[in-house]
Amino acid sequence: MPQTITVECVSPGLDPGSIEAVVTLPTFRRPEHLLATLASLTAQRGAPSFAVVVMENDAEGRAGLEAAGPLFADGTITGLVLVAHERGNCSAYNAGWETALERFGNMRHLLVIDDDEIAGEDWIARMVETAERLGVDIVGGPQTPRFEPGARTFTENHPVFRPHYSASGAVPILYSSGNVLLARHVLETMGAPFLDTAFNFIGGGDADFYSRCRERGFRFGWCAEAPVFETVPARRTEFSWLNARALRNGAISAIIERRRLGGARGAARRIAKSLALLAVSPWRSLRLGVDTGSATIGLYHCQVAVGRLLAEFGQVNEQYRQPERN
């Protein structure tokens, strides 16, 4: 059943036919940072004509709508603000992507940035240029951490804060939606709902989407020169959060494989792989710990392996269920 989407504010004089790129921006109870993200979008240089679609995912509080609405109403920002009434990050993305397809008939590229990120001034231009130069369908870029006061900054070397690739070019697949460009035909081919809402509170809906895109033959690229700067609260550098994120990452990999390898034979293969990864994880963790000089960081591979195995038995941590602790 389609979710309820309410468009609350449209910038005056918006000409949908003139828009070549749409930036979708989901938000949930971060009004101050949302304004900073929007300010970084208004400062873009060299970008094609673009609009911004803000997806408010707190239908009750609406703090993001209240913060961003006046900027769209007075024309400071071109685009619209909607409310995605179904809670969850996948639902918010789906609402924005569906609306962008429906409202902007000449849109060629859709980009995504989160409400805890700041775009560099040539972010859109570089992402579009990379897609066209490489001839790929989906482009990702780095999410560079900016740690808040009190954070344990040695964790910047933790795998959860490091980009998956270091150099621009074609890549086999992407994993995160926090800094990404999608060609219009990707969305048209995959169809709504784009992200599986079963991942709403686990995370990993983006990784599952990319896995399905790869199966359909879409190509991926990476633009190392188009970072967004992600604000990292101090709590995300504590052991409890890092442990939960690593366990979750392992669980997501198991869930995605389960969808590709069904039946008794598939389950046997998955569990065998999970056990094999668990067996080698102490050595991988030891190497990572030595390389980074941190036992906390070194535990990552063991945590991922444990999370993957636990997911095979139905134990999955919904890390996004309590956003104030995420």
Describe the structure.
This protein is of the alpha/beta class and 326 residues long. It folds into 2 domains: 5-237, Spore Coat Polysaccharide Biosynthesis Protein SpsA, Chain A (Alpha-Beta Complex), CATH 3.90.550; 239-325, no CATH class. 42% of the residues lie in helices and 18% in strands. A 9-stranded mixed β-sheet has the order 1-4-3-2-5-10-7-11-9, sandwiched between helices. The protein has a 3-stranded mixed β-sheet with strand order 6-12-8. Helix 8 packs antiparallel against helix 10 (300-311). The model has no long low-confidence stretch (mean pLDDT 93).
Q: Strand arrangement, largest sheet?
A: 1-4-3-2-5-10-7-11-9
Q: Per the principal axes of the C-alpha atoms, what is the gross shape?
A: globular
What CATH calls the topology of the largest domain is: Spore Coat Polysaccharide Biosynthesis Protein SpsA, Chain A
The tally of beta strands, per DSSP, is 12
| Share of helical residues | 40-55%
* Biggest pleated sheet: 9 strands, mixed
Our count of domains comes out at 2
Number of helices: 10
Q: Whole-number radius of gyration?
A: 20 Å
What class would the helix/strand composition place it in?
alpha/beta
Q: Can you tell me the CATH class of the largest domain? A: Alpha Beta
CATH superfamily of the largest domain: Spore Coat Polysaccharide Biosynthesis Protein SpsA, Chain A
H/E series: EEHEHEHEEHEEEEHHEEHHHH
Summarize this, please?
The protein has helices at 31-42, 63-73, 89-103, 123-134, 184-190, 205-215, 239-260, 263-292, 295-298, 300-311, and strands at residues 5-10, 21-27, 50-56, 79-84, 109-113, 117-119, 138-140, 143-147, 169-171, 179-183, 220-222, 228-232.
